[in-house]
Amino acid sequence: xxxxxxxxxxxTKTEAAYHxxxxxxxxxxxxxxxxxxxxxxxxxxxxxxxPLREALSRLEAERLVTAESNRGFSVAPVSRGELEDLSKAxxxxxxxxxxxxxxxxxxxWEAAVVTAHYRLSRCQIPAEGLSDDALHDWVEKHQAFHEAxxxxxxxxxxxxxxxxxxxxxxxxxxxxxxxPTLRAAAxxxxxxxxxxxxxxxxxxxxxxxxxxxxxxxxxxxxALALMKEHVGLTVDVFTLADLDGAGGGGRRNQxxxxxxxxxxxxxxxxxxxxxxxxxxxxxxYVLLLPTDYYLFGGMLAVALSFLVLVFLPVRGGERLxxxxxxxxxMPLDGRAxxxxxxxxxxxxxxxxxxxxxxxxxxNPLPLVIWTLLWVGVTVLQGVLGNxxxxxxxxxxxxxxxxxxxxxxxxxxxxxxxxxxxxAFLTLSGFAWFELVxxxxxxxxxxxxxxxxxxxxxxxxxxxxxxxxxxxxxxFLTIFFDxxxxxxxxxxxxxxxxxxxxxxxxxxxxxxxxxxxxxGTAFLLLALSSVSFDGLKHTFFWLDLIGINPLEFPGRSAVxxxxxxxxxxxxxxxxxxxMGAVWLGCRLAGEEDVVGTAGHLAWSIIPIAxxxxxxxxxxxxxxxxxxxxxxxxxxxxxxxxxxxxxxLHVQAGATLGAQSAWIIxxxxxxxxxxxxxxxxxxxxLIAYRHLGSAKRATMSQIPLAVxxxxxxxxxxxxxxxxxxx
Length: 724
Known about the structure:
Structural class: mainly alpha
Largest sheet: 3 strands, antiparallel
Shape: globular
Number of strands: 6
Number of helices: 31
Strand content: under 5%
Strand order of the largest sheet: 1-3-2
Radius of gyration: 31 Å
């Protein structure tokens, strides 16, 4: 069984591959600059293409691995310049933590430092011939001593940065401190003895004893000076080793006897490497919107809202929105065929969920459901039109049953009084499963959930008819149909003649019926659930529910808080929207608040679509690549069905400066663009409903304020620090 560096059994093959590769990179068994060819790694480590590719992508995000187009992966290089830079960063952070710890340390802290020093003193100092267990014990006790020295500092962010710095320093220390022994093994003696002496000084118990005494005596000046000396020892080793002076030939056996000792010295100098490993891979793909984008976007939203309300020519806007261009005829209705194919594909994905990898990034089911469907298809619906009508996995099988004799309208009728409240409940269940449930991406559990929902929906269509069930209960069909009202493309049907039309975004809202109260609540629930998905990861929310964001305990610890947060987010948005509509009706002299809200609810769609796109953009960019790879080998049997099983996932590209600039601008443009379109549509809808430009403008002031506030909130979510 593969195990992690701390001995715990990993949950997936990807985790096992990641930990083994990371361990060997940090220990320089995989030397800096060495190529990492997946074919060779498969033979060495015994993992398949997908786990190794995913592990390498995670290591690339940590900057332990580099990737170049057409050259593949390689171990990230090390250099003296980077070592010095990291050492400066360590010095800045560790001395600050040490100073605060000495100032704030109490009797318990003193006892912890003394205890850690005593345990370190009971270990053998690393020397030639020391067993692996003894070496590991010394490293562990040495790490515990340094942690104890800093433990009284109350600075969560600094400790987080400290762990990140050590994650990188560890590899540099091991590689650069092992250089003297490699030179000795090659027969080069110059600098060898001086370098080993510097290593001995770094690992000396005397130095640690003096550091403890300075700390306990509250001798801040002496402790900081000694710590600065300690940090500089590794750079001294590098200088004394003279990397460029290594020769060849010589006394290999004698030199290699001390390789383990020097490697251990590098590990010891890493001190808190274990802590760094625990944090280095968490949320490696976070890409926060810069604050200046957030502030500028908020100001722009206010300005554009004012301009729309004051200067928009409603009659001209109406005429422009009504213009459509006929593209070409659509003679065939192939929905039954495409839907049946979609059903077969879904059945295959569910089978992969049960029989394939348990890793969500290796199994195609979670990647297709949460990435390609919930993100990709959602955006396409708002741009291209109702693609879901062609690919939903129920229509085709249902048509086959109808052709075999089942009644098209079903056996019973759904009560009209139910409205869309059943769909509201199914969407609520979906949102809870996605955002609160412990393991929504677990392939087997997701396969069970998908199977149950497909069966529930298909049974409802048989009993009550496809159209009635789709319009009132099936949340995906309702949600996607609402989004498609915003698209550029529309299908015109006159008898048997069908043509594809092109128009401006929102042109299909011309003549749209007002949503019922249940329909309005449904649409606002869809928006609020995606917003809560962004909120629940922010430091603000985690602090609000009493969770340390840098030590997130997992979903199981926040089920109750997340459930309440999901409900509260909907309650705030729904009450805010209805309150703004009510106030607008008062200003415009309109009495039908619910009917007006039903009309104006359509204008929420651009904001919902824009935030959906912006919120999921980074994860879609990365996970869609994983999906392409997983679809080529859905059962993890070494297949390469579409030639993408060995696809290199460009996770690091998303974090590059140019890519980050593109993503930030795309997010900001989408949010602001969605806001402006929402204000324009809301103004035009109000004009149609109220029949007067003046009354429409008055009615829109409160709603425009709400939209500005929500746009600023969305930009803030994209810029806020996140965890968990």
